[in-house]
Amino acid sequence: MAEKITPRSVDYSQWYIDIILNAKLADYSPVKGSMVIRPRGYSIWERLRDELDRRFKATGHQNAYFPMFIPMSFLKKEAEHVEGFSPELAVVTHAGGEELEEPLVVRPTSETIIWHMYKSWIQSYRDLPLLYNQWANVVRWEKRTRLFLRTAEFLWQEGHTAHETKEEAVEETLKMLKVYKDFVEEYLCLPVIAGKKSESEKFAGAIDTYSIEAMMQDFKALQAGTSHFLGQNFAKAFDVQFQTRTGSLDYVWATSWGVSTRLIGAIIMTHSDDKGLVLPPTLAQEELVIVPIFKTDNKAQVLQYAEALKASLMNAGRRVVLDADENSSPGWKFAEWEMRGVPIRIEAGPKDMAQGVAVLVRRDTGEKITVKKEEIAERSAEILTAIQKNLFERAKAFRDKHTKDITDYESIKQYFSADSAGVSETNSGFARGLWCGSKDCEAKLKLETKATIRCLPLDDQEHIAGNCALCGAPAKHRAIFARAY
After folding, report:
1. Cis, bond preceding 129 (omega within 30 deg of 0)
2. Each residue of 87-109: b (16+ CB within 10 Å) or e?
3. Are 107 and 70 in contact (CB under 8 A)?
4. Are strands 208-215 and 221-231 parallel, antiparallel or unpaired?
5. Exposure string for 18-47, b = 16+ CB within 10 A, e = fewer
6. How confident is the model over 127-163, as pLDDT tens digits?
7. What is the pLDDT of residues 200-232, one digit of tens each?
8. Are 215 and 430 contacting, i.e. CB atoms less than 8 angstroms apart?
9. Which burial class, exposed, middle or buried, applies to 342 when counting CB atoms under 10 A from its CB (0-12, 13-18, 19+)?
């Protein structure tokens, strides 16, 4: 119920947790930092997973599975990689009642074990490319956790591809970034900025890292997906060479890319409100819920009418449920289904039955639409499409409203300042400005404002003329600065 939800304006972090717990998406597990994903939450993951998997396969990728236990020596072969993950590793030292000869790392990511296998699978250019993806769980021992956004164990997919040339690998890296961008914007209604990460923000072991960045309702950025050009780093670490078309030997070129259950957190924080969860129709377990309104003397007739509405919608392929529970009032049901984020609620009572209509209520706007019984399937489809479109446009308008062009460091510091009232729309969001490329500038920004360079937008790097907004030196890039999760 709505009274269980802390308003966003009072405590945004608690609002987020309240929605997850009350909408029954996930719960805390007895293992600190881990979560239990409940059926309603897992159904969201299944729907986005299945759609993303379809898009992967449409671009020629195949699914595989690799072990979750990785020898410690594998990680040490790529020095930058192990250094980047060392603080987060979970290590197995004993098994079967005995101490292991070599510690095993519980998979934080799979580059090392996959490239160990690629060595025996790749001998010639004829074996390339390998376009593999894995759906799996990974463990990163985070000290500060939050349901879906950052947990010790989470679900994800990780693509790992091997290529004959640098050009093919770079093309793959950018192709998968676009797959992610199109997917989250079309299917999850999350407007994102696609760009290249700075050197200090890139993936450990990558040559270049690219990401899609979304803005949440508390004006913070959330990295919604990453795609990495790994160059020949892992091929050299694991000695994966192939015979080229000219008969010489060369190291394989690589990419990796991934998204995780963090996307569910992004959906919640982008679309939901103080009544509870708001979901794009593509992700909703139920697209519609029918709530019959009856009294004892007309119960049978109203329920029969509601069943007919349900049958019409099911015949049209809609995911619909009829809430015929007699122990709860219609008002309680309205609030409960709003909490769960069902896109359309259908109200049907004696007057509606007499007129041969039903009242459709949009979750995103609260608008009530009276529809004839025989038109309910067609009109429902139109309204679901409208909701999907509106959620994206509303989120994009919010992001654009809270994106500000910045030209100097004092303005950046002021923009990311938090007064006694805390972060608000006047002192946070996305700042767009020029950057010289200096790590020192970037480090100073993070230290003094807690903001970071989220990405260098790919579609906004032309005509760079002017000075760095952080230090005043000649600029090389246009960047998005923001506080982030």
Report:
1. yes
2. eebeeeeeeeeeeeeebbbbbbb
3. yes
4. antiparallel
5. bbbbbbebbebeeeebebebeebbbbbbeb
6. 999 999 999 999 999 888 999 999 999 999 999 999 9
7. 999 988 999 999 999 999 999 999 999 999 999
8. yes
9. buried
